[in-house]
Structure formats: C-alpha cells, structure tokens
Amino acid sequence: MMKNWILFFVLGLFWGCSNLPETPIANTEKLSTLPHDDHSYANLQQIRTKHLHLDLEVDFKAQTIYGVARHQMINKGADTAIFDVKGLLIQKVTLGDSKKSREKETDFTIGPMDKDSIIGQALLVNVDSNTTYVNIYYQTTTESAALDWLDTTLTSSKTKPFLYTQGQAILTRTWIPLQDSPSNRITYSADVKVPSDLLALMSAKNPTSLHPDGIFHFEMPYEIPSYLIALAVGDIGFKDLGSGCGVYAEKELLQQCATEFEDLPRMMQVANNLYGKYCWGRYDVLVLPYSFPFGGMENPMLTFANPTLLTGDKSLVSVLAHELAHSWSGNLVTNHSWSDLWLNEGTTVYFEQRIMEALSGKEVADIMALIEFDELQNALKEIQSSKHPEDSRLHLELVGRDPDLALSDVAYVKGAFFFKTLEQKVGRNALDKFLKNYFAHFAFQTIDANTFIDYLEQHLLNPLQIDFNYRQWIFGEGLPQNCIQIASPRLDQMSSYAQQFNAGSNPFKPQFKYKWIRKNGKRKKVKIDLSIHYEDRIIQEWQIFIRNLSPKTSATRMKQLDHDLHFSASQNSEVLKEWFVLAAQTSYALEIKPAIENFLVKVGRRKYLMPIYEALNSNPKTKQMARDIFNKAKHNYHSVSRGSVANLLNN
Ligand SMILES: [Zn+2]
Predict the structure, then answer these.
(1) Which residue is catalytic, options 323, 357, 423, 578?
(2) pTM to 2 decimal places
C-alpha cells in the first residue's frame, strides 16, 4: 500500500498542472463510463465536441448576438449529433471545416420543449460517420436567459451599455447551441465583434485595451465544462495587481476595486501553497454592474464579481477567496452532473475558509464559518418541512427538476462541514495532502460522488485505517451527529447583547465615565467613552447580533437601535440584508421604505433579494410593498433573479 501511495504521489505531480502544455489539450478519445447527465439531450457517447470556435457579433441596438458555433467533434460513427438549445433561433447548420471552405448544408430538426421548460430543446443534426465539423448558424432572442443587456442607465458610466452572460447551471445553451453538460470538457476559441468603443472579455486569455475595429480574439487552451464559457462587453478598464492577478471594471469603479482587492496576490500565494500550483495562467477579476445575480462566478481566468463586494473595508473579500478556490475545486475537478454540485461547492467553501484563515486568523475564519453554519441550520429546517426533505443530502436526485435547486446551503455549507469534520478526524496534514493529490489526479476531469468515494477510501481512509461515516454525510439526510462543533466567544457576546436588547435594555446606548488624571502637575477630569460602536465589531458580528434580535421588537425600539448603530445607512450589503429582513418582520420597514427600495432597485444579487422579498411578502403589512418595489426594480435584474423573485411573490 505504501509503495502504491508513493507511486501515486509521483504520478500525481506529473498529472498536475506543472506540466500543462501551452497549446490546446486534445480530449482523450476515451468516452465517459459515468451515467448520463439528466439535464442535457446530448448524445455524448456517440459524438461529442472537443473544440468549439465561436464567431460572434454583439449588436447592442438589437440586443442580439449573431453567431456561428463551430464544433470540432469526436465521432464514434453517429448519424445524428444532438445539441442543447433554449431560446435560440437556428438559421442553418453546415458540416465541414470552414477553414478549408468545405462547408455543406445539412438537415436539422428541433425537438419539443420539455414539460417544465427546464432543459429546453434538442437540436438534432444529420451527420454521417465521418463528420468531425458541425457549424451552427444562429442568433439569440429575448428568451436567451443567460444574457443580461444593460442599457446605459444601469451602468456606472451612464453613457455606455453593458452585456454579460451567466452560464451556470444550464444557461449556456441559451446563448450558444452546444452540448451543455458539465460531463463534457472542451477547449474553445472565439472571434467577437463589438462596438469599437467597448472592450470584450471572456473566460479566456484577455485583452487589456480597446481594438480599433472592435474585433477581439480569445483562446481558452484548457478543457472546461460548457457552463464556464462566459462573455462580458462594456466600457471596461484594467488594473494590474501584480503576481499575475488583475482587476477589470467599469472605469468609474476601477480604483475602488483595485484597493478593495489588493490582497488578491496574497490569496493566490496561500492557495498555491495549500493545494498545488494555479493552473490557468493569469487570474483576473471582472467587477460587473449591480444586476449580477451572484456574489461571484468562477469563470476560469476571469472571475465575475458583484460590486456589492466593494465595501471600502475588505469585509467581503472572502467571496474572492471562494472564486479563486474554484480554480481548483470546480474548474479543475468538476461535478459530472448537477446532482453532485457539492463536489464543486463544498470543497470550495472549505478551501475558501482555509485561505481566509491564513489571511485573517483562525478566530475570524471560525466566525465566518459559524455565520454560514447558522444559515445552513435554517435551510435544513426549511428543507425538512418541504416537499423534498431528501434535498438535505449532499448527493441530490434532480431528474425532471431545475438544477439550480442544487445551489443551496446544503451543497456549500454542509459540503464544507463534511471536509471540516473529515479534517478533525484524519488531521489537517493528512487532509491537505489528500486534497492536493486529489486536485492533481483528477485535473481537467469530471467526477461523481462514487468516484470521489473510491478515491477517498483508497488514498485517505484505508491507508490511515480510519472509519468515517462518509456515506451518511453524502447520501443521508440532515447533519450527522459527528459534525464538527465550532465555538466563537465573540459571536456569543453578540448573541448576549441581542438577548439583553430583547429583554428591554439597550447595551448600545451611549455610556461614559469620568476619571481624574494628573497632567502638568494639575488634576484634570477626563471623559472616557464606554459605548459600543459599530466600527468596534466586524460585519459578521453585527450579522449575528441582528439575527438574534426578536421579530417582535417594536418599531420604536428598532428606530432607537438604528439611531445608535446606523444600520439602515450601512455601506455593507450583508448588514443591510439582515437589517431589512428584521425590519420587514417587525413592520419597521414601513418607516424605512426609501432605504429598502433604494437597495432592492440597485442590487440584483439573489442572495440579498430572496430573504428580503420573502420577509416583506410574509408580513401582511408589507406584502404590497414587496410587489410595488419589485415592479420598479425587476427590469434591473438578471433573468435568474427576476424569475426567482417572481416565483416567490406569486406563490
Ligand atoms: Zn462557488
């Protein structure tokens, strides 16, 4: 066993990224033996894309992308190639290599939409057993849900428009006709034409300045799953942060972004030291306009980030640590299907917490982990009383269901606590070594829960002769009893302040004491401030304080607290989210409606929208307010957020 271990370790180093070629990597001819992905029509076992070239023209006036998706394919003798499409207009399909002028039109059919319009339609293209090039001529439509076209009023410049895409989980098929399954990894290249005063960026090697003709060429030389293909176009500038990291943003936000994210090179160094060398060349972050529905999206080489991270005090940079960690967990080793999203996200949250621990210390990292654990417990309660109590398992059954359902605290936080508990059991050194080898071994592959389990047994548990209830964690509901317990005296203190407040006292009212001191031979009375100030605590401490306040707090006392601690005027969106939820529960929302409305009209991040709208909708006194604000705000949201809030308010 020991011999094998050493052999594996040596091979692992070679399989890892240190030896990656600079040129595109050809897909292995081997076809996957893992089960079919239920969220794709693609017949990957017969024919599959290995390289995709995109010829695109971005037309802001028509809010349409006109394009050709040129698929270079591995064909095992298929007579039909099946692609996923949703909300696309297919004009024609040709076979043959366009570079050799050998394109020939072929027949195609588009299948019916699935019952709940979740996975879209199958595009069936007639091919023959020798076909290796399929070219699909198409255009996007208003139903292309991945695309967020922002007119000038929604951008920082107020003079130039903006476009970005969001592919995860299965939205790439709404802007590119392709085999949209994470189980198939492809390389891609693109030629993209945009207005000449705008910069185009992709999840690829990127430009840093405008091109006079507005045509940009992109290469992604590493194999990625389709949900990681991304495009953004806008009045975007670039600032280098050193060590191969940089930030892109609308020019008005650029300096603010560079200051907020200046620790990125340090994060990169920590990540490299933990789990092996970063494999993707450069690592840049693009800060998008406020409508972006997520905190961040791990598009390789170019994380897309939400401007709500710009707090001025770096208090939310853990989101960047998360997206950077995805360069290993998720992007390098990818879930085979959305049923195992926890393999992407649980590993990433664990990794993120390790980066934050190295940067901010264990006490702060524990506070962050506990905040998330608190959210997980609420999520588990909701899941338990829902129609699908089995959704508290890490491995999910998603047949016929929207894969976005997997994007819950279970995959992220229960997944992270699985690794934290495992760390407690096997020791940090052993887990770190295991994870480093795991990323190297499965680099540029997709895996499922069973593949992970085999590897876990063979390379961690069996060699150390350790029993660990991983089956209960992965396939069982709720949280196993051996889940690691974390304590934070600082958060306990904040809960205690909340209890004091709930009991009628106010620990935050201004408090002073006077003391006599001797100065220059004279006695002098000085005033000492004993009050607790907002800036004395970190954001996460205030989150726990607000969460522990009673929803029965009177509006008068809410107002008093707001006066002492200025929550409604906070620049931090995490604090605002907690405060607005409580304000809705206590009906104090009626008094601070302008602040709530400003936030909901400006910010499109689903993490904030959902709890605030839900709280407003649940209180009969603020139900109408939720609808009024949504009607004003919905045009500012990406379709992902708009759809989620609309569902919530209609139920
Ligand atoms: Zn993530």
Answers:
(1) 323
(2) 0.92
